[in-house]
Every structure is written in C-alpha cells, then in structure tokens.
Design a protein that fits this description.
The chain is of the alpha/beta class. It has helices at 3-35, 41-52, 64-100, 110-135, 171-184, 207-215, 236-245, 284-287, 330-337; strands at 138-145, 156-161, 189-193, 223-226, 248-250, 254-258, 262-266, 297-300, 316-319, 343-345, 353-356, 373-380. It has 2 domains: 3-134, no CATH class; 140-380, Metallo-dependent phosphatases (Purple Acid Phosphatase, chain A, domain 2). Helix 1 crosses helix 3 (64-100), helix 1 crosses helix 4 and helix 3 crosses helix 4 (110-135).
C-alpha cells in the first residue's frame, strides 16, 4: 500500500510533463509552419516525442553508447524544456494582455504569431547557451569567520566544495580545473560536503584519472568528506573504497581532531538515494560527546535543512545540496525551502555559523543560470 502514493505521484508528474510538452510542441509547430509551410506534422511529432521521452528513460537498460546519447539529449533538453515553457507562457500572457487592452487585434495577425514564437525560441537559445557556458566556469567565494567563544590560536583556511556529481555530463572534464583552483588557494583543510558522485562510480569514463586528480589535492591536514544523497545506492561500498584509495577520508557520523585546534565532524546524509548500506544517521548528541570538548567544532553536513539542531553542538556548519537553485527560477523554490540556501549565515549570536555553497558541479542539465559553480575558501579565526 505504501507504493500507491508513489505511483500516483509519478503518474501525476508524467501527466504534467506531457501536458506542458503538448503546449510547447503546438507553439513550436505553429511557428515553424509560418517559416516553413511544408513542415510535416507527423515527422515533427515523432522527432519531438523522441527528444522529450529521454527525460523519463533514465532507468531503461541500454548499451553504453546509446545510454550516453540518451543522457546527453535528456540533460540539455531539461534546460531547453524549462525555458521554452517560461518564454512561450510569458509571450502568451503578453499577447493576451494586449488583446484584453485592445492593443492587439483578434484574431491574431501572422506577424504577431511569428514574433511571439521567434522571441520565445531565440530567448531560450540565448539563455541556455549562456547557462552552458557559465556552468563550465569556476568562481571563487571567500568568507572570514571569527569564532567569538573559542577563537583559534592561529587562522585556519578551510576550502569547501560540494556537489561535484562526478559521472554526470561534463563533470570529469571540469575536475582538473577544480583541483587546480583548490591547490591555488593553499588550503589547510579541504572539506567536500557530499554528492561527490552522481549515484554510481560505474558511469565514470576514466576512473583512474578521477582517482589521480583527487589524490593530487594539496592540503596541510587532509581532505575530508561527508556523503550526499547521490552517493548511496548499490555501489555505496565501491564509492567508499574509491574515496579511500583517492586520499579522501570519509566521515560517516565521525569526528577527527585537526592539529589539536578543532574537531571536524562529517554527517551521514538525511535521505540517501538507495541507502548507505547498514549506515544510519545518528542524532548529533550521539556523535559529538565522545569527541571531547574545548575546541571549535566544524560540521560537514550535505543538506542544510537541519541547521537548527546544531545549536550548542557546533561552531560552524558546512553544507551544499541546494545548488542555489542552479537554474532560475528554481532558486525561488530553494529560497523558500531552506532557512539559508546560499552563503554565510548566522541565525543569532548564540547560533553556529553556516556556510552553504552553490556547489562545484551540476545535477541534471549542465546549465547554470542565476548561480555559479564555485570553490569556497573560509578563513577561520
């Protein structure tokens, strides 16, 4: 019986997706017939359907070559789909407003229909093209954080990255420049706040190169990671082994003392896709007491949704997961969902500092609009 709500939800999502695609397809075909009167409706419907169906073929078995084509088409179509819908809808609202205000005649003239379609299509291509370019750029953010109650004897530089999604489109290609950017900052500690992989390491095209690049991270006190919701599943044990061989220490509700100056804690993700084997998330009170006291406590927790539970336990929380929405207008949704979706935040003077990064990679469409792939440096004092 528990499967029933999930089935209903999935069917509803597919129905909404189909309805929006019918709307987009009608608008595109209407515009194409104005430019190319001989466009064949059946050919157009078949071609459009083949593209749109790739978004729901993620779990369909296929040879590796076909799988790569499906993943590529699906990823870019996801971005095109969002902005075609937004721009066609906006254009229709403008036209409807013009008709209600008697600025535009009815029925609509050919020129109005032509420019309505042209504007939506050109704007979509322009916005998505910028988003693809922006998603291949690495930005840098920096924060100076002073721990009032337990000041460090010496400043410590923490470099934070998250959401690499290695295995997704373009992630491996960008990894070398990410590692170089980290090394250029000369960090004392590197923290990876989850979603290191994209559900599995079996999708890596060159696992040896990925391992070599991770090993090349230069840091005084090591590289530490917590797991994200995309790091679980059937390949979890392989992921753990891969990280260990890559010089990345996974902290699964564990803490480690750094140079006698602070305690670093890595949390198990709240809702890992496919689970994390036999590992379950503990209550923070069961994680921290054995670690001792008197030193500042820094927590790596992939999802920032539970930051309120760390008051009295942690001085600084490092998180990712939100991608800062990745593509406008999704940032409006993440802003409503989380107390803090991005940046440096402190609820009040007695609460821990929080730094949420927009991530260093992309999930789904390799597109960034209104957000950046970033490497964060934190000067902890």
């Amino acid at each position: 019986m528990r499967l029933f709500p999930g089935i209903i939800g999935s069917l509803a999502a597919v129905a909404v997706y189909a309805a929006i695609n019918i709307y987009i397809a009608r608008r595109i075909y209407q515009w194409l017939t104005l430019v190319f009167p001989g466009v064949n409706l059946i050919v157009f419907v078949v071609a459009y359907s083949l593209v749109t169906v790739t978004m729901i073929m993620g779990f369909v078995p296929a040879p590796s070559v076909i799988r790569r084509v499906i993943d590529w088409v699906s990823a870019y179509w996801m971005g095109m789909f969002v902005y075609l819908f937004l721009f066609f809808l906006t254009a229709d609202i403008i036209v409807l407003t013009g008709r209600l205000a008697r600025i535009l005649p009815g029925p609509l003239q050919r020129d109005v229909l032509f420019f309505r379609g042209l504007a939506a299509i050109v704007l979509t291509i322009a916005v998505v093209s910028f988003g693809v370019y922006n998603a291949n750029q690495i930005r840098f953010a920096s924060y100076d954080i002073v721990l009032e109650d337990r000041t460090l004897s010496d400043e410590l530089k923490i470099v934070l990255i998250s959401d690499l999604h290695i295995g997704s489109l373009n992630a491996e290609r960008n990894l070398e420049s990410i590692i170089q950017g980290i090394n250029n900052l000369s960090p004392d500690i590197v923290c990876i706040a989850g979603d290191i992989f994209n559900n599995s390491i079996s999708t890596l095209s060159d696992s040896g190169r990925v391992m070599s690049l991770l090993k090349s991270i230069e840091t005084v006190h090591g590289v530490y990671a917590s797991m994200g919701n995309h790091d679980g599943g059937r390949k979890f044990d392989e992921i753990v082994e891969f990280l260990g061989e890559s010089g990345v220490r996974l902290l699964a509700d564990e803490c480690v003392e750094i140079d006698g100056r602070l305690l670093l804690v890595g949390r198990v993700d709240r809702s890992p896709i496919g689970g994390l084997g036999n590992i379950k998330r503990k209550d923070i009170s069961d994680v921290l007491p054995p670690c001792g006291a008197g030193m500042p406590v820094v927590v790596i927790d992939h999802n920032p949704s539970g930051i309120g539970g760390y008051s009295g336990y942690a001085d600084l929380i490092l998180a990712g997961h939100t991608h800062k929405g990745q593509m406008f207008p999704m940032n409006l949704i993440t802003r409503a969902m989380y107390e803090v979706q991005y940046g440096h935040y402190q609820r009040d003077e007695s609460s821990p500092h929080v730094v949420v990064t927009s991530g260093t990679g992309t999930w789904g469409p390799p597109i960034r609009i209104g957000s950046n792939n970033e490497i964060v440096s934190i000067n902890l004092k």
